Amino acid sequence: MNVLIAGAGRLGTQIAQVLSAPGNEITVVDADHARLDALRGRFDARFVCGDASETAVQARADTGHADLLVAATGRDEDNLVISLLAKRRFAVPRVVARINDDENTWLFDHRWGVDVAVPAATPLVSLIEEATGATDTVALMRLSSAGVGVIETVITAGSRSAGRRLGDVALPEGTLVATVVRDGDPTAPHPDLLLRPGDELLLVSHDADEQEIHAAFQ
Length: 218
Prior knowledge:
Blueprint: E1 2-6, H1 10-19, E2 25-30, H2 33-39, E3 46-49, H3 55-60, E4 68-71, H4 76-89, E5 94-99, E6 116-119, H5 124-132, E7 149-154, E8 175-182, E9 185-187, E10 200-205, H6 210-217
Parallel strand pairs: 1-2, 1-4, 2-3, 4-5, 5-6
Antiparallel strand pairs: 7-10, 8-9, 8-10
């Protein structure tokens, strides 16, 4: 997957870290040359210095070949222009834009080229899921370096969640099930999946700890 991230602040950097897995091509665009220099070597990505709201800069960043663009700057007006340019000029299939000010939420829709609008308070886990459309594209262990925990729990015969649908288990806020390993094989999580003794669940969470995960399933 070719991913272009506009904005190398904290959020943009975290997204780039998580998505810089084998098979993904990451491009980070930011107007701050020093900020980009500080990121070089931290993860595998191409860095382009410039204002992503300008056509020439997006062309230099090869936006036309991006499968996903994430507008993650700290200015809503910039994110809107970046999104519109990416969608209308470069036909990017999926555009995700960060909303910094909730009062501007009404602007972030298809008219501005935005496929998914993400409020600033959204946990990183949920943002990545929204951006990629699936969690199985995420290099899970890289989430730890971006401030997101990877937690494992195993369903036993005595677990209260055994025999229940996955969708019926109330998860802590900012937590999602990344995969269910059954009989040694990873299974895509879905709400109707019936949990069985022996199932091993890998979860990613922005806030929850092991005790909270244990309480949800055991």
